[in-house]
Amino acid sequence: MPKTSARLLAMLSLLQARRDWPGALLADRLEISPRTVRRDVDRLRELGYPIATIKGPDGGYRLGAGTELPPLLFDDEQAVALTVALQVAAGSGGGIGDAAGRALNTVRQVMPTRLRHRIDTVRVTSVARPAPEVDGAVLVEVSTAVRRQEVLRFDYGEGVRRAEPHHVVTRYGRWYLVAWDLDKDDWRTFRIDRMTPRTPTGPRFTPRAVPGGDVAAFVTARFQGSDTGWQCRGEVILDKPAARVAEFAGDAIVEALGPDRCRMLVGSWSWPAMAATLGRFEAEIEVVGPPELRDAFAQLAHRFARTAGVIVGR
């Protein structure tokens, strides 16, 4: 690639990365003179890219949102990132698998041979549990209500719900809407594949703060049974190497105590569920605490013994 073309591509990449670029900073990042920056900006304008000049003490440039932009240009890192993102999107359960595949093929066709060969080496298979497909039109409609901060009315189950939509999230292949339920007066997560939005949307609202301020942490905690995470937390010592335990420990904390022993801090929605989860490691278990976890092991022992007795007596 000629040096000038490579420089223009790098400049476009920078202009897309932030809204405003002071001329001096742009020259410094590209390691060229301010005069060359001005010449390159003129070249990009001739190619059809709407680049506005920012007036002020420092001066600068801004890439505008043109209605008819020429084909997008990608540097090597962007091309690889786009390839991975589109391949992962094909398995996201968002009803966009075929579209993502077509988009990847379209992008590949317009890339230079050198870059095409590079992205062809990237093969990503997204492995996820089977999840229901989400209608792409519904996903866009819900996301639009989030962006516009408009109350959403939708059929859900056997009733109609009203909610202030805040965030669209994906978890384990399923898509959810995090919203303030106006009828329940509380935060809720709704499965988007079960939603049928009604039109028109309701009035605009002022967004509330998600508990804790972190949407990802809030959603994770909700699926753990509360707004603050697991309701039950225990500590045990397992006669098993930490490396073997950590592979299947989920969000638990595993600390090596030697080559064949480890400490495990684990959470669950109930003590019996925690005891049953720990039992699957097929190792000797020492309960550090609390007493409720030790009692849960005793409950399960009696239950399993009764079950074994029924089986043996047949």
- Order of helix and strand elements from N to C terminus: HEHHEEHHHHEEEEEHEHEEHEH
Give the overall silhouette.
extended
What is the SS-derived class? alpha+beta
Please tally the helical runs, counting DSSP H or I stretches of 4 or more residues.
Answer: 11
**Strand order in the sheet with the most strands:** 7-6-5-4-8
* Measured distance between first and last alpha carbons: 78 Å
What summary fits the major beta sheet? 5 strands, antiparallel
Helix content: 40-55%
- Contiguous uncertain segments of 5+ residues: none
Query: How many strands?
Result: 12
User: How would you name the oligomeric state of the polypeptide chains in this document?
Assistant: single chain
- Radius of gyration computed on alpha carbons: 27 Å
Q: On the 0-100 scale, what is the average pLDDT?
A: 82
As a percent range, the share of strand residues is 15-25%
In short:
The chain has 314 residues and is of the alpha+beta class. It has helices at 3-17, 23-30, 34-46, 76-89, 97-109, 113-120, 136-148, 215-223, 242-246, 271-279, 291-313; strands at residues 21-22, 51-54, 60-63, 152-156, 159-171, 174-181, 186-191, 195-198, 232-238, 253-256, 262-268, 285-289.
Description:
With 314 residues, the protein is an alpha+beta fold. The protein contains 11 helices and 12 strands. The chain has helices at 3-17, 23-30, 34-46, 76-89, 97-109, 113-120, 136-148, 215-223, 242-246, 271-279, 291-313; strands at 21-22, 51-54, 60-63, 152-156, 159-171, 174-181, 186-191, 195-198, 232-238, 253-256, 262-268, 285-289. The strands form 3 sheets. The chain has a 5-stranded antiparallel sheet with strand order 7-6-5-4-8. A hairpin with a 5-residue loop joins strand 10 (253-256) and strand 11 (262-268). The termini are far apart. The mean pLDDT is 82.
